[in-house]
Write a structure and sequence with these properties.
Rossmann fold; Luciferase, domain 3; GMP Synthetase, Chain A, domain 3; 3 domains; 14-stranded mixed beta sheet; 12 helices; 27% strand; globular
């Protein structure tokens, strides 16, 4: 075992093989030596602007070698990277920066954050700054991603682990040393950031892109012989629908992970048929990482719809009164980490806890008699219509099975008779049209009648971001009048 700081890990891999590719983004490859040089100059520039050990540093850059250089620059100073979307609305970013008390904001217009140095998207450190390795420092926490935003008050989720890694041990979860990782998701989301940055520190060549493109992802896998890949179901859907999918060589892939959003069963099945269940893994956990479930594709075929059994920490399902429910009964999922371990702390929020100290992330689901976990949806997104609990993810999975639909959302809107009615929002694939009567008939083959949206709305832009997230609360708020009645 050789525990080193994350900043030192980049220095070490650059020294071991300086010309080996470190990051490829948008067709441009940056070597380890080039990334190390840029990160060291950035670190010195950040330090001159006031970044100190233990500070949270907000980074709002698109996927690029520059993003990774900024993150490693922060680690080299013993500080904590706090990634956010470069497209975040100013007010939302302001609230996050204030929570983090970030001494600088990377990737922002200076007028947005008075009193703090702001580095624009095209900022680069002065060429005169030294690119020699810095004095080694260990960050007290290795990341501080955000949650909330326009769906609620923002909060920081600060990892309990310091910014170190074992550069001789197994990186875990199928990641190998000096491999090639395809990670096309946005780095401001926890999973792409966590896996790719630590993979990079373990010597991997990370292939990414500023914005997800299904065909470019497959081209990148083939060109760079990626052996490990991280996706969300939205990406899987778009890749499956590429007309020339079978023409790309995906044989280099040893491990394919998907997570962060529910995966429709039909989509999971066609991926297993296409690439083999032994290569496809699903993980369920929050950024908080109190507990984790994992399931491999061939095991999933025997437990269709499950996200697996708990392999780290513990999970249980409680009803609205806090009582544990019987196997097969839907309730709210509560978690706790292994004994004696803390995995995170919030800044700007308090965790939701049961009377005995277990925590909930707001997910609904059930556990079978063998301990396999099945998710329903988020408690906050559940639609109560005519006395029935309706879970949007099930409706969205059915809508997105339609060949014309690229992304969708199901929300509940106020209804005088039912309390809430299901409203379906759909974004069509380029060049496609859909007849709503035909769509209703299509859904009737997949959903019981009361779950079929009573109204539909065709949207002009995708409803999910590149991480597969959809902000149902914001979509609902836009369609409800101040007096609580529906605009639709």
């Amino acid at each position: 075992m050789a525990i080193v700081s994350l900043g030192r890990a980049l220095t070490n891999i650059a020294a071991a093989d300086p010309h080996r590719p470190a990051v490829t983004s948008d067709g441009v490859t940056t070597t380890r030596a080039e990334l190390e040089s840029l990160a060291n100059r950035m670190a010195r520039a950040f330090e001159a602007m006031g970044v100190k050990q233990g500070d949270y540093v907000t980074i709002g850059l698109p996927n690029s070698a520059k993003f990774y250089a900024a993150a490693f620059a922060v680690w080299k100073l013993g500080a904590v990277p706090q990634p956010v979307s470069p497209r975040l609305p100013i007010r939302e970013r302001q609230a996050i920066v204030e929570l983090a008390n970030s001494p600088i904001v990377v990737g922002a217009d200076g007028e947005a954050h008075p009193g703090r140095p702001c580095l624009s998207l095209d900022w680069m450190p002065d060429e005169s700054l030294s690119d020699a390795p810095l004095e080694d420092r260990i960050p007290p926490a290795w990341k501080a991603p955000t949650s909330g935003g326009s769906t609620g008050r923002p909060k920081l989720i600060v990892a309990s682990d310091p910014g170190v890694l074992d550069d001789e041990g197994d990186p875990g979860q199928g990641v190998q040393r000096n491999g090639v990782m395809m990670v096309p998701g946005p780095m401001y989301h926890n999973a792409p950031f966590s896996y790719s940055s630590r993979g990079l520190a373990n010597g991997n060549h990370v292939v990414t892109m500023p914005r997800f493109d299904a065909e470019k992802t497959m081209q990148g896998i083939q060109e760079h012989k990626a052996d490990w890949m991280l996706l969300v179901p939205t990406m899987m859907l778009r890749m499956w629908r590429v007309a020339e999918r079978e023409s790309y060589d995906m044989s280099s892939l040893r491990v394919i992970w998907h997570m962060a959003a529910p995966c429709p069963m039909w989509l999971k099945e066609v991926w297993i048929e296409w690439l083999g269940g032994e290569r496809i893994f699903e993980l369920y956990a929050g950024t908080e990482a109190q507990a984790v479930t994992i399931i491999r594709g061939d095991d999933w075929m025997a437990h269709k719809g499950s996200v697996g059994r708990c392999v780290i920490g513990e999970m249980k399902v409680l009803d609205e009164n806090g009582n544990q429910v019987e196997p097969g009964t839907v309730g709210e999922i509560y978690m706790r980490p292994p004994a004696g371990r803390e995995t995170y702390k919030y800044i700007g929020a308090e965790p939701k806890k049961s009377s005995d100290g277990w925590e909930s992330l707001g997910d609904m689901g059930y556990m079978d008699a063998d301990g396999y976990v099945y998710l329903s949806d988020r408690l906050s997104d559940m639609i109560l219509s005519g006395g029935a609990n309706i879970y949007p993810a099930e409706i969205e999975a059915a809508m997105e099975e339609h060949p014309a639909i690229s992304s969708s959302a199901a929300i509940g809107l106020p209804d005088e008779d039912l309390g809430s009615k299901v409203h379906g929002l759909i974004y069509l694939s380029p060049g496609e049209t859909v007849d709503l009567d035909e769509l209703r008939a299509f859904l009737a083959e997949r959903l019981v009648r009361y779950k079929i949206p009573r109204t539909f709305e065709i949207m002009s832009e995708s409803l999910r971001d590149d991480a597969g997230k959809v902000r149902r609360s914001a979509l609902r708020a836009e369609r409800v009048n101040p007096d609580g009645t529906s605009k639709i």
